[in-house]
Structures are given as structure tokens and as C-alpha cells.
Amino acid sequence: MSLKADYPVTTLCDVLSCSRSSIYYPSQDDDEVDLRSAIERLAGEWVTYGYRRITKMLQREGWSVNHKRVRRVMGQMSLLQKKKRVKPRTTNSQHDFGRYPNHVQSLDITCPDQVWVADITYVQLGRGHVYLAIIMDVFTRMIRGWQLSRNLDAQSLTIRALKQALETHCPQIHHSDQGWQYACWDYVNLLRDHEVQISMARIGEPRENGYAERLMRTLKEEEIDLSDYDDFADAHRRIGQFIEDVYLDFRQTRWGRLHIAEIAP
Q1: Domain assignments of the chain as residue spans, ordered by start
Q2: Is the pTM of this model over 0.85?
Q3: How many secondary structure helices (H) and strands (E) does the chain include?
């Protein structure tokens, strides 16, 4: 005979010193044990992954978890690496190089390679950080060139990205912020040699380089902020794989479909 049939639930809980919620909701212990097991398996297989990436992989396996819970469990399992995050400055507009007006504000962009935008962001490593320079065609959203460097020197970062982009395409307008890497003589002269018009956002107005800002946000949210890179080589390989195998593959497929739709009778 069930005690519940003869006694109120409140009385039984008082006698047994347990909460009423435990009567109606099953214990989460088994679920927590399974989650720990899954995290231990993934963390052992992907030793460089942090809690954000582990969360994504768990969700792909069907787990209904968020990154806060995964971070808590990984912390209890001593699987988190504590890192001192220092946000480096990537834009220095205090220089004596030339300044250029914004030629793309309110511009109607109607074709590929009409406008390229460029920007720089930092990438956190296990120790220290490196810098990523990106050049994107606004109309197709295709990345034309990119470069990862250990420092902010224009020759090893922005100029290499630009040279890579110019190997296969050439824009009418190149737009960036007023950072010295984009205003220095070598960068400007390379653009002039290809008869490219130079355009820059005003100082303190990141929205005037909004296309590049949105691209960087996409790269951060979908790859960089989800990853824990061991070193420069690891970051270069995995960012390159994301750009080539994920981002560009998606953009090429989408652009191909749009192009076919435009020329279809």
C-alpha cells in the first residue's frame, strides 16, 4: 500500500526530511554523471578546446546544455585553463601619414570588386596573442585576402593580406579605418599602383567601416571566441580551415545560387 494514499505529501516530506520538489521531479544526478562523462570524452579527444567549443559539440550530440553549465562542470573537473585576457589595441590613428575621405558612405554597391573593406583584430593564444588582417569584397561578402601575424607591422600583416587579394582580383575602392597600417606609404602606393581609390572611415566612427566590423564579429563568434589555440601554427591552421572550408564555402554556394537566379530566364 502506498503511504501517499493515506497521508498528505506535506506530512510525509516533514517526516522524511525531504523537499516536496523531490517527489515531483526526478534527480538530476544521473544526468550530471552522463554529462561529465561526455565532457571528459570530448575534452580528452580535443585537448585544446575550451568550454565554448565543448558546449557546441555537446549540443551537436543532442545535449540541451548552455555554456554556463558546461563551464561550471568543467571547472569542477579541473578542465579549465585560467588565462589572463588582455585586449590589445589594433588601431592607432595617431600618425603623420595621409588621410583620405570616406567614399563609400551612402554609395550604392552594385557589383563585385566595387568596394573592398579591410580590418584588423587580435586572436588570443594559450600565451599571448597574434593579429588577423582581413580584406572582404562587400558585394559578394567573399574574403579576398587574409594574413595572421605575430605583430602589427604592416609588411607582415596588412600588406601581405593585400598582396594576396590582388593576385586574383582588384577593387575600384579600398575602404578601411585610419590606422597607420592602412595609411603608410607602402600600403597606399600598392593601391595606387593598381589604380585603386582609397577611402577611410573617420576617426572614432567604427560604424563607417561597418561591413568589416560585421565580418570580424562573425569570425569571432563562429570560430575565434569558440577556440583555444595552442600557438601561432595552431591558430593559423584552424582559422585558415574555417575561412576556406566554412565561411568561403558557404559564401560561394550562396553567391552561385544568387547568380544562377539572376541569369535564369
Answers
A1: 3-76, 115-263
A2: no
A3: 12, 5
User: Which helix (H) or strand (E) segment is 73 a member of?
Assistant: helix 67-76
**pLDDT for the residue 12:** 60
Neighbours of 213 (CB within 10 A): 17
Q: Which CATH class is domain 115-263?
A: alpha beta
Residue 40 neighbours by CB under 8 Å, 6+ apart = 77, 79
Instruction: Give the span between the Cα atoms of 74 and 70, in whole angstroms.
Output: 6
**Cell 588582417 found at:** 133
Beta bridge partners of 95: none
CA atoms of 68 and 192, how far apart (whole Å): 50
The CA-based angle 214-251-258, given to 5 degrees, is: 115
149: cell is: 601575424
Q: Are strands 143-149 and 129-137 parallel, antiparallel or unpaired?
A: antiparallel
DSSP characters for 85-120?
----------SSS-----S-TT----STTSEEEEEE
**Neighbouring-strand partners of residue 117:** 136, 175
Question: Does the structure show a pLDDT above 80 at 72?
Answer: yes
Give the Cα-Cα-Cα angle 105, 108, 112 (nearest 5 degrees): 110
Q: How many angstroms separate the CA atoms of 11 and 112, rounded? A: 75
| Residues 172-209: tens digit of each pLDDT | 999 999 989 999 999 999 999 999 999 999 887 878 88
Question: What is d(CA 35, CA 63) in angstroms, rounded to the nearest whole number?
Answer: 8
